[in-house]
Structure formats: C-alpha cells, structure tokens
Amino acid sequence: MSDGGQSEPAASTPRRNWADLGPRFSSAIVLIVLTATALAIGGYVFAGLVGVVFAGVYREWETMVTRAPLRPASWAMIVLVGLSGLVFPLWGGIGTAGVIALACVVAATQGRAEVGWRLGGLVFLGIVIASAVAMRGATSAGIWAGVYLGTVVWMTDSAAFFTGRQIGGEKLAPDISPSKTWSGALGGLALGTAAGTLVWAIATDSPLWIGLAFSIVISVLGQLGDLSESAIKRRFRIKDSGDIIPGHGGLMDRLDSLTFGVVFLTVVGLLHAGAGAVAEGFLYW
After folding, report:
1. Measured CA distances, 99 to 76, 87, 188 (Å)
2. Where does the chain have alpha helices with state H?
3. In DSSP terms, which residues pair with 249 in a beta bridge?
4. What would the pLDDT profile of 83-95 be if each residue is shown by its tens digit?
5. Same domain membership, residue 223 and residue 285
6. What contacts 205, CB < 8 A, 6 or more positions away?
7. TM spans, by residue (predicted)?
8. Domain containing 55: what range?
9. Which of 10, 22, 142, 253 shows its CA 20 to 30 Å from the CA of 278?
C-alpha cells in the first residue's frame, strides 16, 4: 500500500482529506473484478495474469533501483519475469526457477551497480509468482484459498487506511513510514482477522481457531510487507513505486501486502499436503 494511505494529520483536527477516495475506490473495484475472474478461471489465464502483473512490478523495481531509463537488458528481465508465471502450469516450480535464473544471469551481466538489488528483486518475485500459481492449483480449493488470502490482506489494508485517517495517533514506524499509525495497524488487524475468519468458516469445515490464527498471521505479514516496501522506497527516496493505479500508486504499492502472505500460505500448504495440493493443505485440517 502506498505511503499516502494514512496521511499526516492537520494541526487542528484528525480529519483527513478524502479527495482521493473516488479514484481509489474505482480502481479497487476494477482490480477485484479482474483478479476474481482470473482466479475463477485458473490455469493459464491465472498464471498469465500473475506473470504479467509481476512483470509490471519488476519494471517498477528496475526503474527504482537503477534510477535510469529502461535498457534492452532491463526489458529482457521484465519479459522473463512475466514468462516465469506462464511456465509454472507446464513445468512447475522448476520451470519458474529456471526462467528466473536466466533473468538473474542477465542482471549479473549489467555490471555491479545495484546488482544485489536486482538479483534480490528477481529471486523474491520468482518465489511470490510460484507461490501464487501453486496456491491456485487446479481445483476449487485454490479459488477459496485465493479468496481467503485476498480478503484478509485487502480488508487489513482498507481498515488500516480508514482507521489511520480517521483516528490518527501515535506513529507505527516513523523512521520508515511517517504516515502509518498504531490505530491504523490495529484497526487493520482487527477487521482483516474478522473477515478472514468468516471466509474460513464458509470455505472449510476445519477448526475455526486455525482460521483465526492464520488470519492474524497473514494480516500481520501483510502489514510487514507494506512496511518493508516503505523502507525500500525510503532507501531509494521515492514516495510511490509508480502511478499506474489511480488512488493507489504503482503495482508494487498495491501488491506489497500480498507477497509475504501468499508465500506463507503456500509454505503451510506444501508442508501439510505436498506440492500437488497446496490449497487443500492450507484449508483442510
């Protein structure tokens, strides 16, 4: 989530300017419809969307860390990130890892300047892409896992945004993101956990306390992902990763909260049920 989500309070009142709410809401509706459609269809449609979206994320990452116009090698890495999602249904994690490894080779040939940031971004995005496509899988359980994850993360984001603007108060991490508050973090945790637990109760007969625990973890991880991106943006002295999504900023600003959560969900599913049943391994206990 963009650092603009919880803006600084005015001197005389905790009320915030809500002028950006319209574009933010409209963009959110479009994103939800697009994501839900791809999630429902699954297969190459979902894998392709994941690849394209995270190729866009890497484009923002490359621009941020190099502070220079994109070169042919940069575009090659962006394309390879996109392909890494599309190959997963064919060759699984090995295929995705192979494509990301090729992108890393391209990055390593571009000299030492920011090579660590480039490689780190490529490897992390490869893990996130593989996790997302593995989570969806080929069964309806993957749809429910995606709905559950999206509900926890986006309700956490929304509640943090509104609570932080309305209440304000003590800063959560002023050295990283001066706009974020404890009230926003706790409001996000409360609503994200409640909404996620409700979806869990609908999606599975597994014990409710497991869904509650997972919802808390994913809500916290979502906020940590948001703070991590804020720290990186502060390192490179930028406010938003881009401006492609009205009211939200860049793709990285919108998806930072999902990244840690989808990896957590996939790791739990893998450990519980194996590579062929990630969503089932996460949902059914």
Report:
1. 11, 8, 36
2. 21-41, 43-66, 72-86, 88-108, 115-136, 140-167, 182-203, 208-235, 251-273, 278-283
3. 245
4. 999 999 999 999 9
5. yes
6. none
7. 25-55, 75-108, 115-135, 141-162, 182-202, 208-227, 258-279
8. 43-136
9. 253
Burial 33-46 (b: 16+ CB within 10 A, else e): eebeebbeebeeeb
Radius of gyration of the chain measured on its C-alpha atoms: 19
pTM of the model: 0.90
Give the Cα separation of 250 and 56 in Å (integer).
9
The domain boundary residue, chosen from 136, 154, 182: 136
Instruction: Specify whether the backbone of 45 is left (phi greater than 0), alpha (psi in -120 to 50) or beta.
Output: alpha
Asked if residues 4 and 240 have their Cβ atoms less than 8 Å apart, the reply is: yes
d(Cα 213, Cα 142) in Å, to the nearest integer? 20
DSSP state of 206: S
Phi, psi dihedral angles at 207 (to 5 degrees): -50, 135
pLDDT tens for 52-77 read 999 999 999 999 999 888 999 999 99
Region label for 180, one of left (φ > 0), alpha (ψ between -120 and 50) or beta (otherwise): beta
Q: Domain check: are 145 and 127 in the same one? A: no
Cβ atoms within 10 Å, residue 25:
12
Determine the Cα–Cα distance for residues 117 and 107; give it in Å rounded to an integer: 10
Kindly state the average pLDDT of the residues 212-218: 98
In this predicted structure, the answer to whether residue 264 has a pLDDT above a threshold of 90 is: yes
Q: In terms of domains, do 169 and 284 share one?
A: yes
